[in-house]
């Protein structure tokens, strides 16, 4: 029996700015990554997103990013491992405070954007992120790019680690995601995206932009909540997985 978790980045608005349709998409996912105020999100948005996640019984995770609202946390910054550690601890703490007041639990931590991508390749940053998660609580699950420095660091330190794959992103032959600066970074066809998902979950591989099959492990699938047709796409993914007899279930 095949099974997989579906996660989505939400709570990425702030102030009067709203991004994505959180309540609608929560019906089709099993884990949610909530922005913690650095790349997006604010206290009110964090609280509201937690409330909705609890309503739909979706597992809650922190989504720490670089302190770059203007760039949405997708621009690389020259940070030290210590700075990465401090940023992750700080943002986990912000979300945990709200969860405590709402008598809820945090399941996982998934870095965002440039911080995530930097930690997939840079061993020192990966270890700093994993250490930050472990020091807050060794019971937390670390979400990281499948077969990357980040998942390796999480497993090495003793964290339960979920290998993440992406539905709407293309891959390079080294297993990394194609840069968003490239024209072919995103998969815009829903059918093509779900075919890639099935290939990753059932066969443990993805075909890179270079035409090479890359072996990977698919514990959790990332759907982006800020896309133009995010809700319809999430619904399509769920329907396709069920048709392929793949159980959609939170990572354990």
From TrEMBL:
Coiled coil feature spans: none
Keywords per UniProt: ATP-binding, Hydrolase, Nucleotide-binding
Catalytic reaction annotation: 5-oxo-L-proline + ATP + 2 H2O = L-glutamate + ADP + phosphate + H(+)
SUPFAM superfamilies: Glycoside hydrolase/deacetylase (SSF88713)
InterPro entries attached to this UniProt entry: Glyco_hydro/deAcase_b/a-brl, LamB/YcsF/PxpA-like
Domain of life: Bacteria
Example GO molecular function: 5-oxoprolinase (ATP-hydrolyzing) activity
HAMAP family: PxpA (MF_00691)
Protein family membership: Belongs to the LamB/PxpA family.
PANTHER family in UniProt: 5-OXOPROLINASE SUBUNIT A, UNCHARACTERIZED PROTEIN YBGL-RELATED
Protein task: Catalyzes the cleavage of 5-oxoproline to form L-glutamate coupled to the hydrolysis of ATP to ADP and inorganic phosphate.
NCBIfam families: PRK05406.1-3, PRK05406.1-5
Subunit structure of this chain's protein: Forms a complex composed of PxpA, PxpB and PxpC.
Name this protein carries in UniProt: 5-oxoprolinase subunit A
Lineage: Bacteria, Bacillati, Bacillota, Bacilli, Bacillales
